[in-house]
Structure to design on (503 residues):
């Protein structure tokens, strides 16, 4: 898909279709939409008057122009209410309008820049959001379908038409960043969508190596033996049931080598399939557990963008990759394992495996000099019960870092909601036979999981993101397609960029 900025007049440009826009409640369109309306002798305002166009967000109205103006068709895309208009609206509207025209088989489409006029957004963020919206919105996972395009044709080119020469440079810069953000979110989506017989820990390490090579990151992959020597008993306990070798994947961006303490570590859960282990999950829906490496996938995607953008901060991306299988050597409920930080863990439920692999990865990150930690994990079903798929949850031990993460999510359109971490919750994971146990029962399941992880963050500023409700979408919605969402890849990139700026 090509996206280009062109300086032209929207009423004259010769294209199969032009996308214009409208806020809800506007009767006389202004700006570029107004110019098109006038050139069409008031066709758009007439449709508004007739109640045919309401301009609700995501509403698309197609008008044929029969040679009256340059574009053969005009699509009026509803922006919804002006007071709710954000960059996220731009992503969603770009996705839905481009999908609409792709379904009609159009290969080339022109569009105005949504929101750079009365919407009040700067040209750079409009360009970025439009690139993200169209690329992510038109994405679908087709690696195993013959024939490829199953959605009625390919949209090959999107022209972003702007008359004001003062905006062209910023629009182009925004597009460039948006293309990268979409590309790396798609890396994460693809990894989630690939089946677990393909997306093994070994395959994840291969993809990370490719990313490292392309973007000049350093990479290390720790094998089982090395992890044994380091004493990663919690991680390796999970790996015992699988024939797939576990991998601890470590990508590094050295953006501020003179200041080693200016750093952040992103630690992703990389369970390439979660059967539950001996505490086996029920069969219904188990196939979705091929995406239990979504946190790790988002880390690899984000590291690609960080390697490209080179912010002045040192970033470590770590993925604790293994399967959770019920093999003959699998760990059992009641087993006690010793984590790398010395704490013993009673494994009550082998299906609470994510926190076990993260515990050792987080401790290892601290040992190797990481001074701020963000972990990302499809950690608990309880998170889905609490928040559904509208937002991810965040918990942690450092309000500043949590707030920075929430803000980074806001500009990415990836919502994050904080849950409490009262001391009371820690009582639920006390064990009679070990320092701690890996489950706290039904109540506050997401928080007790976070309380478990807190034992391994210790005094390092840390935020934990539970993406169990957001890593996957069962419907096409906004710029999400069915399957992996890529959440929170773009949030992590934003966070690294913002921390580098804040210094
Ligand atoms: N990967 C699952 C959590 C999950 C569930 C992610 C649904 C996405 C969608 C995790 O490893 C798990 O199994 N958690 C258990 C923990 C319990 C045994 C304490 C859960 O949530 O049931
Ligand atoms: Mn599990
Ligand atoms: Zn899991």
């Amino acid at each position: 898909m090509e996206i280009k900025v062109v300086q032209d007049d929207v009423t004259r440009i010769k294209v199969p279709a032009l996308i214009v826009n409208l806020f809800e409640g506007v009767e006389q369109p202004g700006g570029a939409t107004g110019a098109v309306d006038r050139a069409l002798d008031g066709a758009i305002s007439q449709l508004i008057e007739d109640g045919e166009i309401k301009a609700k967000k995501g509403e698309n109205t197609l008008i044929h122009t029969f040679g009256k103006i340059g574009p053969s068709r005009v699509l009026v895309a509803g922006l919804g209410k002006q007071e709710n208009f954000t960059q996220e609206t731009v992503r969603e509207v770009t996705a839905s309008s481009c999908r609409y025209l792709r379904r009609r088989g159009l290969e080339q489409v022109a569009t105005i820049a949504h929101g750079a006029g009365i919407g009040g957004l700067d040209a750079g963020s409009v360009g970025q959001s439009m690139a993200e919206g169209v690329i992510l919105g038109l994405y679908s996972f087709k690696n195993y379908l013959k024939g490829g395009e199953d959605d009625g044709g390919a949209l090959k080119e999107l022209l972003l038409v702007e008359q004001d020469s003062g905006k062209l440079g910023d629009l182009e810069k925004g597009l460039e960043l948006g293309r990268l953000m979409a590309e790396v979110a798609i890396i994460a989506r693809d990894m989630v969508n690939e089946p677990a017989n393909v997306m093994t820990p070994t395959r994840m390490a291969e993809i990370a190596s490719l990313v490292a090579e392309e973007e000049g990151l350093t990479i290390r992959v720790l094998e089982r033996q090395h992890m044994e020597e380091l004493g990663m008993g919690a991680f390796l306990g999970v790996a015992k049931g699988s024939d797939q070798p576990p991998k601890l994947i470590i990508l590094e961006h050295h953006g501020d080598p003179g200041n080693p303490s200016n750093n952040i570590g992103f630690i992703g859960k990389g369970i390439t399939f979660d059967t539950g282990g001996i505490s086996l999950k029920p069969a219904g829906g188990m196939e979705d557990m091929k995406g239990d490496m979504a946190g790790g996938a988002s880390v690899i995607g984000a590291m690609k963008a960080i390697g490209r953008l080179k912010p002045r901060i040192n970033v470590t991306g770590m993925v604790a990759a293994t399967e959770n299988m019920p093999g003959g050597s699998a760990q059992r409920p009641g087993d006690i394992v010793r984590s790398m930080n010395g704490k013993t863990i009673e494994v009550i439920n082998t299906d609470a495996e994510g926190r076990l692999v993260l515990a050792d990865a987080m401790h290892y990150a601290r040992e190797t000099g990481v001074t701020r930690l963000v972990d990302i994990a499809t950690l608990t079903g309880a998170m889905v019960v609490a928040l559904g798929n509208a937002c991810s949850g965040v918990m942690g031990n450092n309000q500043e870092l949590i707030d920075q993460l929430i803000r980074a999510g806001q500009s990415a359109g990836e919502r994050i909601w904080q849950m409490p971490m009262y001391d009371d919750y820690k009582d639920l994971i006390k064990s009679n036979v070990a320092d701690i146990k890996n489950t706290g029962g039904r109540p506050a399941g997401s928080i007790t999981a976070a309380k478990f992880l807190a034992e391994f963050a210790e005094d390092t500023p840390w935020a934990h993101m539970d993406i169990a409700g957001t890593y996957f979408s069962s419907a096409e919605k906004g710029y999400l397609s069915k399957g992996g969402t890529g959440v929170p890849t773009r949030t992590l990139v934003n966070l690294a960029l913002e921390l580098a700026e804040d210094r």
Notes: Residues 274, 292, 349, 351-354, 378-382, 384, 439, 445, 468 surround BES (ligand 1) (CB under 6 Å). Residues 2-163 form a domain with the Leucine Aminopeptidase, subunit E; domain 1 fold (CATH 3.40.220.10). The mean pLDDT is 97.
